[in-house]
């Protein structure tokens, strides 16, 4: 066997439009040595998320700037290999923003322990991680659905949308999802137990949504922007609430445009954007609630897994174009025994 290396995925260039395979490059380099307060990690799971495309487009609120040669940002679940911090020992499982690499050196302050007793450790990147917390915060704090109100969730089969809709259902709302192909819509209704789901590929999306929302839309959880948002805005009920979570349909798009806000004025709707990064202190409360719902069968989740760090760009693009179901992950290494 050769000398172990840290394999990382870096930007070869800034993507223009939809990322392509040759926008990325694989770099093999010596494994680093942890200094004081640092950990050497072995990555097990990588998270694929829309915000990574936003970073590639120049967004500045993610720490390291996107530039050729930069390691692609992203959250990961890892095993501690060596520790120079008394809080962690080899074998511990942690989660943090350590990027697309196999053996990162990270500050111990930048990671958190993963409780493997709650669920498989991969869920720390999905239903029990930032996507789940995002869904909960957006629905509970911004959407605030009352029992019997109608909630529409875009990207309903994705990591955030699938949880957001189930949170609304558990709060007593009637939930309508918007997803892609018929298989996703069946998953949203049959497995996630939304009341209905329409395809964003429907040539008359507005009419399809109107049939499922005869009294209008009281809450819209917006993951996508784009034509779905235009269609929902035309159906807003009086005093509707819009939780603006993401605009994945518009990230990197050269022809992205604004939305007609006149329906918001007519319905006296409230639109509020929010960030999970300002709510990370609430993660323990979310994990307690989500774990209880999972045990009760009131919250289900799916993972869409690709194996091998060299396939991370492929997995990322599949997620962006809507070819994944549930939380998109890359398995970099096998879970430790018993995890």
What does this structure look like?
With 339 residues, the protein is of the alpha/beta class. The protein has two domains: 5-126 and 301-331, Quinone Oxidoreductase, Chain A, domain 1; 130-277, 3-Layer(aba) Sandwich (Rossmann fold), CATH 3.40.50.720. It has helices spanning 51-56, 130-143, 159-170, 182-190, 205-212, 226-233, 262-267, 283-296, 312-320, and strands at 5-11, 24-30, 38-47, 76-83, 93-96, 105-107, 111-113, 150-154, 174-179, 196-199, 217-222, 236-244, 270-273, 303-307, 327-331. The strands form three sheets. Strands 3, 4, 5, 6, 7, 14 and 15 form a seven-stranded mixed beta sheet that branches. Strand 8 (150-154), helix 3 (159-170) and strand 9 (174-179) form a beta-alpha-beta unit. The longest helix has 14 residues, at 130-143. The radius of gyration is 20 Å and the shape is globular. The two termini are 26 Å apart.
What descriptive keywords fit this protein?
2 domains, Quinone Oxidoreductase, Chain A, domain 1, 7-stranded mixed β-sheet, single chain, about 25% strand, Rossmann fold, about 350 residues, about 25% helix, 6-stranded parallel β-sheet
């Amino acid at each position: 066997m050769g000398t172990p290396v840290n394999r990382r995925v870096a930007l070869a260039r800034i993507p223009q439009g939809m990322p392509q395979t040759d926008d990325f490059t694989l770099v093999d380099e010596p494994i680093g040595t942890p200094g004081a307060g640092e950990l050497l990690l072995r990555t097990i799971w990588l998270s694929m998320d829309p915000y990574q495309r936003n970073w590639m487009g120049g967004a500045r609120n993610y720490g390291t700037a996107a530039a050729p040669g930069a390691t692609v940002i992203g959250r990961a679940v890892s095993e501690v290999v060596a520790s120079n911090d008394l809080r962690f020992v080899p074998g511990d499982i942690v989660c943090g923003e350590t990027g697309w690499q196999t053996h990162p050196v990270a500050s111990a302050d930048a990671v958190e322990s993963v409780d493997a007793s709650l669920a498989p450790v991969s869920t720390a990147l999905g239903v029990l991680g930032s996507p789940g917390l995002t869904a909960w915060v957006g629905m509970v704090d911004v959407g605030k659905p009352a029992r019997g109100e109608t909630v529409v969730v875009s990207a309903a089969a994705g990591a955030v949308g699938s949880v957001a809709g189930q949170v609304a259902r558990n709060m007593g709302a009637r939930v309508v999802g918007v997803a892609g192909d018929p298989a996703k819509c069946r998953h949203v209704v049959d497995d996630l137990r939304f009341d209905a789901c329409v395809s964003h590929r429907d040539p008359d999306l507005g009419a399809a949504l109107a049939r499922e929302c005869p009294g209008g839309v009281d809450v819209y959880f917006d993951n996508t922007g784009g034509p779905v948002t235009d269609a929902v805005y035309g159906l807003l009920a009086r005093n509707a609430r819009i939780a603006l979570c993401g605009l994945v349909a518009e990230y990197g798009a050269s022809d992205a445009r604004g939305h007609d806000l006149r329906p918001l004025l007519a319905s006296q709707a409230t639109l509020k954007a929010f960030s999970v990064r300002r709510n990370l202190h609430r993660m323990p409360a979310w994990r307690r609630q989500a774990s209880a719902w999972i045990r009760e069968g009131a919250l289900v989740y799916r993972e869409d897994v690709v194996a091998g760090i060299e396939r991370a760009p492929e997995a990322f693009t599949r997620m962006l174009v809507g070819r994944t179901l549930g939380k998109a992950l890359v398995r970099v290494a096998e879970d430790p025994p018993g995890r």
